[in-house]
Structure formats: structure tokens, C-alpha cells
Amino acid sequence: MRFRYDVDDRPPIQEMLSTGIMWTIITLSFVVILGTMITALYPYSPAEVTWYLQKLLFITGVATIVQTLFGHRLPAVFGPSAILIVGATASADFVPEAFATALLISGVVGMLIPLTGIMPYISKLFTPRIITAILMLIPITLIPSITAMLFNMGEPGSVTAKIVFIVIFILILFYANAKMEGFAKATLLLWALICGSIVYFLCFGGFGDIAGSAGMASSEPFNLFIEPVFVPGVIISVLICYLALITNDIGSIQGISEIVHTKGISKRLEKGITITGLMNLISGACGVIGGVNYSISTGMILDTKNAAKITLLPAGVIMMVIAFIPPLLTLFDAIPTLIAGCLVIFMMTSQFSAALHLFLTLHIKKAYAFQTGILIATGILVGTAITLMPAAVLAEIPIAIRPIFGNGFLIGVVVIMVMEHIIYQDLAKRGEDALP
């Protein structure tokens, strides 16, 4: 495919700004939605949520600029990672600093992996079947958190009315996604946040909450950096999630590189993964969720026919500036959790679709191996069962190891790795086209 501007081109300033604004809106939507999701795990005050979003948005802006100039040097959006939210959810019994410390350590490990030359071994460990299961496990293991957002009893509206609202809103989302094009489609999440919130308040009330939100930003000073809290179970849980994040990062960088026809992929991967580790280290030190490069960037590139990486620089600067406007981020904090939950479902369908795409691509020219389905299903079903354990059962697990044994994502990944590399290792030896 031919682009109007290639990776290293410098578009006119007007084109740079317009495309940069589009990148900003896309990234801001993810920051607000996933930021809202993780702050809901802890008893943060409204002012603390605003401070959290400020730090998250500023670091995201910095990461965007650093990746563009010194990392993979590709037109790729960098934003909060859903995989890490799984790890944070499993660690919610501890103070937020425990997860942040584990993320900081994971970021250090992430920086060392490319430098020590073991990245190819990580890639071999995470085979296509395991990646398929991981992509499916992420949305499944987030179901309890999503459900809590959808049916937040602290927000107005009966459960029955909310179910009707959820179904209609999600169907409208997908209808709009199917019919929209260009700028409107690229920025759909932001319009859905705004319009969905307005309709919600019209249906259920609560305009007073958002009307006074602009004045809620606190002048109280908050700490920029955390006091480390080392919890071995949390560290192990988050580190496993981070290894899965690395495979996600590799896939995103490779996919975008192929779309824009760039060379030197090995160097881009090495630098990109290293910078991702550095930014996760900084995120952990500042007590916010870490990030990853998004494969969703390819849709924006193909739609605008603009592959110039330099258009991401204005986006990074704009995000950093917005981070210093607390009243604006406080308004985002007033968005109903039901709306954010619906948008998480909308976003997670892309994860599930990517898993199905990978699975089907695996078998386009090769016969379906029955054991492949067994292997993937076992990891998903075990992981789902752990995720949906009743709270009373979960409480029976000693708190020190609860982030490991209560983490459905981690247990599911471990199960499928044993299935892949030990029980069904003959599949790899005979090839993907092996029949039962």
C-alpha cells in the first residue's frame, strides 16, 4: 500500500497538528477508560483519581515522544496495558504501592531482556497457541472488574434499567463503528464517553455530580513517587503478566513495521522493548499503571494513509500539557463507571477478535489439530474458574500467595504452557498440521 507520507517523511505543519490531535484523542480515551478501571480497585478520593490521571497522562505523553524518537521509531500509540490491569486486580488486597513496586521491578526486567539477548527465547516460550489463549484470557479475567463498573450501586438507576441501557449503548457503539469513517471513527471512544455520559445523566439523573466536577481538583500536594512495598506474591504475579505484555509489544511493533514497510525490525524491537521497560519502570515509581504499544495504531495509519511517525510528537506534547489541567481530568473522573465499563467491553472485543484471527490464520493452510482446541480450552476454562471463584472461597487462600493462586490469568497461562511445552509437545515436533 502506498501512503501519502511514509515513516520518515515530514508532513506540512497543518497535517502534523491535525493527525497529532487524532492520535491524542485516541490515546486520551484509553487513558481515561483504563485509568478509571484501575482507580476503581482502590479507595481513592476524587482528588486522588485526578492526580492519578495526571501522572498517567503525562507519562503516556513522554513515552509516546521517547518511543517515536529513540525507541521503535514507528507511528504507534502507547497507552495503558489491559494485561497489567489483570495483575493489578489480582493484587487489589494490598496497598497500591505493592502493585507499583512489582511493576517497577518488572520494568527493570523488561529493559534487561533485550540487552541480555534472551528475547528470542521469550518468543519461543509464547507460541501462537499460547498467545491465542492469552488474548482470550485478558477480557475473560477482567469480567469481574467490568461487572463491578457496569453495576456500581453508588450510581443512580435500577439494575434492570441499567441492563437495558448497557445493551442498547453497546449495540449503538458497534453500529457507529461499522458506519463511521475517518476522523469520526478514529475518535469514536471519546465521543462515546461524552455522549454516553450525557444520555446516562438524562436517563438516570446525576447532572449535579458533573456540574461541580470542574471545581473538585484539590490543591493538596500529593507525592510524585511511591514508597516501595515489596510483596513476593504480587511481584511474581505482575512479572508473569509483564512477560505476556512483552509478547504483546513484540506483536504490535512487528505488525506496524510490516504495514509501513520498514527495515531493521530486530533493532526496532530491541529499542522498543527497552523503552517500554523504562516507561513501565517510571510508571511503577510514580504509582500508575504501565503501558504498551497498541496494535490499534494500524487502523489509524491505513485510514489516514499517513505513516509519518513525527505526527505522534504533537500528540505527546498535547497529552503532557493536558496533564497540567486538573479541572479537565476531573471532569473525566465524573464519567459514570457504567459508560466506562461498556467501552471496556467494546475495546476487549478487539482482543478477542485478534485471538480468533491468530487462531484461524494458524489453520488457513493447515489441518486443524484437535489437541490445539483442547490445549487452548483447558487454559481458558481453568483461568475462568479461578477468576470467578466466590469471594468466600478466595478468602481461604493465604493473603501472601493470593495474588498468584487467585489470579485466573496467571493460572490459565501456566496451565496452557504446561500443556503446550510438556503434555502436547509432540504437536510442535509434528507441526501445526498434525491430526489427532
What order do the SSEs take from the amino end to the carboxyl end, as H and E?
HHEHHHHHHHHHHHEHHHHHHHHH
Mean pLDDT: 88
What is the gyration radius calculated from CA atoms? 21 Å
Shape: globular
Going across the biggest sheet, name each strand in turn: 1-2
Main sheet, how many strands, which sense, barrel?
Answer: 2 strands, antiparallel
- Helical content, roughly? over 70%
Which segments are poorly predicted (pLDDT under 50) over 5 or more consecutive residues? 432-436
| Residue share in β-strands | under 5%
Into how many domains do the coordinates divide? 1
What does this molecule look like?
- This protein has 436 residues and is an all-alpha fold.
- The protein has one domain.
- It contains 22 helices and two strands.
- The protein has helices at 13-39, 46-70, 82-90, 96-116, 119-125, 128-141, 143-150, 159-179, 182-186, 188-204, 207-211, 232-260, 265-286, 297-304, 312-322, 326-333, 337-362, 370-387, 391-394, 402-405, 408-423, 425-430; strands spanning 78-80, 291-293.
- The protein has a two-stranded antiparallel ribbon with strand order 1-2.
- The longest helix is centred in the middle third of the chain and has 29 residues, at 232-260.
- It starts with 12 loop residues before the first helix and ends in a 6-residue tail after the last helix.
